Amino acid sequence: MAKRSFLIPGVDKRLLIKDSLKVMPDLTRRRFIAGGASIGALTLLTGCDVVDSSSADALLAKVSKFNDAVQDFIFNPDALAPTFPESAITKPFPFNAYYDLDDAPDVSAADWKLEVRGLVDNKKSWTLDELYKLPQFTQITRHICVEGWSAIGSWTGTPLRDFLKLVGADTRAKYVWFQCADKDGYNSPLDMRTALHPQTQMTFKYANEILPRAYGFPMKIRVPTKLGFKNPKYVVSMEVTNDYKGGYWEDQGYNSFSGS
């Protein structure tokens, strides 16, 4: 059999391998490197034949999907993210978005309601005053950004799993999908096991004050077991669903699981 050639028009093989390594889980990455990281190895791992730029993108998407599956498999729903004392809080806690703070959603508390859709018994919309009456708890946890920085903050709100129980959500469903008030229609899915994690929170306060606009007023979803982009802000609706609806960053190639 003739030796196969991996000359790929328009594709830098070294960069493709480097990008693939970025989206592999640690164990897979170590085995892939130990086995001799190569285009040939990638095609065996994913089943994708890389012949041009388009198929290279398809390969990266498949590696990312593989990564999601591995992380989901090894996820321990009982393992807690580290918590910290008040003295460790980052001051000031940074604003972070793909736009400037002046362009952040400016939501009216009086007009806002949380829409609840999908596989739930009670689809009523919730006002902010109604949500504020739910039992709330404070956690001091670390926000880890995909860009490489982190910050510790104090977040107060209602465990998402308690709210899902309250509205009669079908917790056998695969996802809770969040839609936000951002002008670009920011949205993000959360796998159900993470949604039911004890630290996943519907957040209404930061540092014991009403959640500032910079951090997602009137409500953000705080998920300390995930990277920062999996913590949607300015949430306007949630949907319990078995359908994978994608997300703002997920549709651009980011891992959907993106957590521990």
Automatic annotation (TrEMBL):
It holds the Pfam family Oxidored_molyb. Signal peptide: none annotated. It comes from the Bacteria. Residues 104-249 form the Oxidoreductase molybdopterin-binding domain. Gene3D superfamilies: Oxidoreductase, molybdopterin-binding domain (3.90.420.10). InterPro entries: OxRdtase_Mopterin-bd_dom, OxRdtase_Mopterin-bd_sf, TAT_signal. This is Molybdopterin-binding protein.
